[in-house]
Amino acid sequence: MAPDFVRKILGRTEEPAVPAVEPTADGLVIEDxxxxxxxxxxxxxxxxxTAGPNALASLPDLLAEVAHKxxxxxxxPLDSAGGTAAPDLLRTDEGLAWLHSxxxxxxxxRHGLTALAMLDALDPAFETVVLxxxxxxxxxxxxxxxxxxxGGVISHWDEQTGDMIVRGVTAWGGKGVRGDTDRTAxxxxxxxFSGILASKGAIGIASVERPMPRSGAGGLVCAHxxxxxxxxxxxxxxxxxxxxxxx
Length: 247
Known about the structure:
Shape: elongated
Distance between the termini: 100 Å
Mean pLDDT: 82
Order of helices and strands: HEEEHHEEEHE
Number of strands: 7
Low-confidence stretches: none
Strand content: 15-25%
Oligomer: single chain
């Protein structure tokens, strides 16, 4: 490097080379993107109910004491056409089948069905669910807020006896702080369960496990109501509860 007086005479200044600096994590300017979604559900024990022609029709009456937020909706099981439906955005076939199967439901019911299906608290191919918004508010489009509680009863037919098994359920979730939502949901569920036990036709608490579907192309078509079972293992029609006729 030339002396200072030489550089002054020549009229230019040589700057020392700046060594390349590798970027470090501490020196980076990072923009974080994060979305936290939380869905929760509570379900009671099952209660065995005597099967009959009015068994399913009486299910909405079980919500009479708790359904203070509008309509009560009965959602029957999915038939064979929508048996693979699931609220999954990555598995597009299942996601499209889910949208097709639930698009005509009210917004609050779609919210409740999505939460229950994502948490495996509901088997849409085997179980009938009766839902209503039991707590919280909705937005201008009619969709429940994060702290709104959807709830009701879920029923299926015992594959050994043909009796109807009914349990209470509450579900909520989305974005936001929950506060006392969990406690409120538990209180509502206790009221639902008491109503189920006190209802006409209740025999007692059932220890029957929920039906476990077996993969397959589909089951039989019910000779009584025409419902196409989504799974070949169903012995009782998931929709009407009548024995499936097998050749």
